[in-house]
Amino acid sequence: MPTDKLLDPIKSFLQGETPQRWVENALANPELMLIDHANCEKKAASTAINLIYRYVDKYDLLKKMSKLAREELRHFEQVIAIMKKRNIEYVQLTAARYAAGMRKGMRTHEPEKLIDTLIIGAFIEARSCERFAKLAPYLDEELASFYESLLKSEARHFEEYLALARKYSPDPIDDRVEYYANLEQSLVDEPDQEFRFHSGPISD
Description:
204 residues, Ferritin
């Protein structure tokens, strides 16, 4: 599938694009970008596994999250292999405010908590995909090829999270999607103090 066609649903889902200033920050911090990318893949796998533990009665969720966790761990392995090849030490980093910020306002009762978790997952995957595509034209051949190879799976993960949210919600989810779209875009646009894969642009 051509990249533009692949990204069209994601661009429609997200409220706006990643600021160009963030792209400049990423290019100025290639080691940090890869280290935090590895962290993101690891966290994505962990989220899927946590859902498998928490919602054992939902077969479709179990099946899709099991596959997603394996794919995210494979991506993690690929990132750390690139890091090793480039002599980048895998060090501990503080977390971006993005994920915690996305959980702001999450409902605590079920099934609403599950629905919100799945919608948040859709936004995280969609933004990751959008950023891979935005970065790829500026990267060296190896890294550009790798990031382009991730687009299809990240786009599918976004669609699966959203489909599961619709499946398990007793009510339409449009209002919650709009709420998280506004919240997510504010986190992407607002300046951050430290560069991370899901940070906003770094304040001067």
